[in-house]
Amino acid sequence: MEACFVIRLPASQHHDIFSGRPHHVSGMAPTKIKNCALHEGEFGKKGSIVIWDYVHGIFLYTIHQKIIFICIS
User: What are the Bet v I/Major latex protein domain coordinates in residue numbering (predicted)?
Assistant: First the structure.
């Protein structure tokens, strides 16, 4: 999935939202991301499965994202 939208946040907050609270992204880009829900595991944990509902053109799509690697530096 690829989308372009501007998020004006410091890098640390950007990482925090996408890794630990991805369900907040739908509030930041409601025309592109319709929903983000946890299917299995915990947000920000290896092995978790997150379901994304997003709009591309006029169509609504759903994808399942499995977290396979987390880089903490």
Answer: 8-58
The three-state secondary structure class of 22 is helix
Q: Contact 29/5 with Cβ under 8 angstroms?
A: yes
Instruction: Show the CA angle centred on residue 42, arms to residues 37 and 45, nearest 5°.
Output: 120
How far apart (Å, rounded) are the C-alpha atoms in residues 71 and 73? 6
| pLDDT tens track, the chain, 73 positions | 555 666 677 777 777 777 778 888 888 888 888 999 999 998 888 899 999 999 989 999 999 999 888 777 6
